[in-house]
Design brief:
The structure holds three protein chains of three kinds.
Chain A: H1 3-23, E1 31-34, H2 41-57, E2 63-65, H3 72-80, E3 87-93, H4 95-98, E4 112-128, H5 136-145, E5 151-154, H6 160-172, E6 177-180, H7 184-192, E7 198-202, H8 203-208, E8 214-219, E9 244-252, H9 257-272, H10 274-282, E10 287-291, H11 292-316
Parallel strand pairs in A: 1-2, 1-3, 5-6, 5-7
Antiparallel strand pairs in A: 3-9, 4-7, 4-8, 4-9, 4-10
Chain B: H1 3-14, H2 17-35, H3 41-52, H4 57-82, H5 91-102, H6 106-140, H7 144-157, H8 166-181, E1 183-184, E2 191-192, H9 206-224, H10 243-263, H11 270-285, H12 298-313, H13 315-321, H14 327-338, H15 345-350, H16 352-383, H17 388-407, H18 410-428, H19 434-456, H20 463-466, H21 468-485, H22 487-501
Antiparallel strand pairs in B: 1-2
Chain C: H1 12-31, H2 47-69, H3 80-99, H4 102-114, H5 122-143
Helix pairs in contact in C: 1-2, 3-4, 4-5
Classes of the chains: A alpha/beta, B mainly alpha, C mainly alpha.
Amino acid sequence: MTITKTAALAAILATTATAALADWPADRPIEMIVAFAPGGGTDIMLRTLAPFLEAELDTQIPVLNRPGASGEIAYTALSQARPDGHTVSSLNTPGFLTMQIGRTLRYEPADICPIARIVEDPGTFIVQAGSDYTSLADLVAFAKANPGAVSVGTTGVGTDEHLAMLQLEQAAGIDLTAVPFGGANEAKTALLGGHVAMIGLNVGEYTTSDQGSFRALAQFAEERSTLAPELPTAKELGFDVLMSSERGLAAHCDVPEEIRARLAAAVDTALANPEFQEKARQQALPLSFKSGADWQADMPVRLARYTEIFKLIEGGQ
Amino acid sequence: MTFIDLLMLGFSEAITPANLAFCLLGALLGTLIGVLPGIGPTATIAVLLPITFFLPPLAGIIMLAGIYYGAQYGGSTTAVLVNLPGEASAVVTTLDGYQMARQGRAGAALAVAALGSFFAGTVATFAIAVAGPTLSGFALSFGPAEYVSLMVFGLLAATILASGPVLKAIGMILIGLLLGMVGTDGATGAERLTFGAIELFDGIDFIVIAIGIFGFSEIIANLERSGSEGVKLAPLSRLWPTREDFRNSWGAVLRGTGLGTLLGLLPGGGATLASFSAYSLEKKVSRHPERFGTGVVEGVAAPEAANNAAAQSSFIPLLTLGIPSNNMMAMMLSAFMIHGITPGPTVLTNQPEIFWGLVASMWIGNLLLVVINLPMIGLWVKLLTVPYRLLYPAILLFCCIGVYSMNNRIFDVILAAGFGLLGYAFRKAKCEPGPLLLGFVLGPLLESNLRRTLLITQGDPAIFVERPISLVMLLATVALLGLMILPAFRRTREEAFQEEEA
Amino acid sequence: MAAPTGTGTGDRPDLLSAGLFIGLGALGLWMGRGLPFGTLAQMGPGFLPRVVCVLLIAVGLAVGLPALRRPAQAIEAVRLRPLLVITVAIVGFAYAATHLGFVLAALWLVIAGSLADPGGRWRHILPLAAGLTLFGALVFVYGLGVQVPLWPF
């Protein structure tokens, strides 16, 4: 093959590639996979965002819920979709990181590249409004006397609630029992009915719930969230528990860099839109944009910390 | 404000021309997607959710609610006409509804279903208005242990659905349970019984099994009898129910409404559980249980009333506690949240026009549905006079599109064809598929709640007899089991079976 | 499948049921063989599948063994034409829908599906296929937004 022929071939390939790129995203809808059941924090956030992205990218973005297995089902679907920029999915830490610890996954985590972080929402523990536990200290004291008797509703193995619980067990030297539910709503129902003693929620989910029926014990951020300025952090109370739920979007890493950059830019613009900010305020979404690259850079450190927590807990049991 | 004032406020909100129009639009759209097999309300609402962004909150929510209960009406139409349950709660409607259609009484079945549903919808709507907060307390008292006992009872009661031998019905339930376990285990993430197929990670869709086992195998069996010429329905005897039909069905409608209103409060399989327990109850109280399954009007009236009552009362946990009881209600919650409304006790006091407007619109929507549907019955029944050789390719096409459209993938269509073959084998083995579908729906609820219960009690099963509601249901289960094992009971079952054979 | 044992006895439909129950139960046991069973307090993913499969096999035996001794009863005649034609038509539709588009897939489904009926006439089948395809395209693809290509390209 002569050089000219190769060049011509390369040119043709490049043109078709550019043509495919040029068509994106108007040629087909972009499917947005949500790793949680309809009605949860991530679902509502992305359903609110989708129309703004649609306007920004001038295409359709149908939302598809593929809940289950702490998000693995959705990430597997994403990693197996054609990497043409027509499939994006929600990306949630710490779930995305913790499932990489000691679990055989059906997808390669390195295939999933963050596009942008949208929200950072600290975790919190909630009890019934009329509960005997008025503070985290009350709960810890009870759990110390009755190992395993305090049941904590989570949304699955390795989710932020579960991890926060593990950290609290470690920090306070207590033994709690994790009970997985299908989602935050199922867990809330069980708490209201008194079937579990405590559930993990995010501060955002807590502030949008009916305030009269729940009581938050502590939040797990470095600093008090703007959403709940009166709620103490676990650190202030003397327990080293740090857990924030970060929610954003991801695509397959084989999606051309240019398309991912355009998606990220569209998210950035949508987040700056006052109309979206108003909706985010109504839904108590603590918006916090971070580019995909920066977000990805954070991950190895956190993964190491979570691995350590898991190891300590498993070793102790 | 007094109750009457609040109700008036609700109606004044609901009958503004715009809200009335959205109510009608939702009800019509719901009827359409209910009639089309496979296209379900959850998917439709997910698609329409962004559109409601641009509507005033109440109008958007009224329309989505209309789609939901409209689909309940529409779903029974295909169950009666072509033996195709559009969703889980319509499975039992096929048992007697389709038999009535074969005897030329499709019109009567549809009319009884519509009127029974309207009555049930009215009662359940008023239950929301009058006793919403009280009833939600009932829903909350159901913890994991109560669910386990309820599901065990429900599964055993499912054997009453079948008219054949109990053992075979139990076998079918077990197969349903097994099918319900296919997919990724929610609690551990382990992959189960999937043959390694990624399409099975989420488990099998109800629609795939229903369309395969009911739809496809029905077509094959019909053609087998001697080609399309052999499929002859009895001539249409009468479009409307007779006076006797009304007399036979009013008790069934009342009991179905009561059961449906209560069971609809429960998360998960509420509507399904409601429709088949209503059927089982009718069969138990009936003076001629052996005729169930051959086209008795009570067998249509009770489950239809129950599933519509349940559809309405499933709004109660959402509206009074802010907690959705099923996927559909979770969609509704999203719709509320997108408008910045957090459903719950505060909405009742701060934004009464939203709550009461929705309640009033639900009653209006039910009324509109009856008004729309009764004249349509004539049209639907005409459809049955179309020769089968023209009808079955159409059913085939609609089923295939419906199955495909759930996840936009061909795998589901092929899987449905496979279930068609399995359903065919069940027909040859004289196994009735109803219990299988119920096992399939209730099984995952049983497993996840059993796990939760034993986690909470740290492996101590005593909780099932310590909690009163759970104990009552377990005792009822034992009693039911005793009845089944009692020889006398067995004899009547045998007789019923013989009679059907004859 | 359960094999008939003699000419005089054997309730074939029940023997077929027993075969289906035992077969599916065994299949489930085999497929779930690698799943951890766990304990009552920490139920593994293999706990219930195994319990259900064992019960299913037990029910299969309970249905099948008495059926062996009962007077012979035949299974209704099996006709292969509708069974095979309908199945092939559906599977063909599935493959055609994404690769060849809705129009060709629907035409195939209606035309091939119609061959299941020995009494079919081409002058009925062709207009029916065209009409249903048009209706399907309008209602499902345009009206309800089912995401499927209409044409092969």
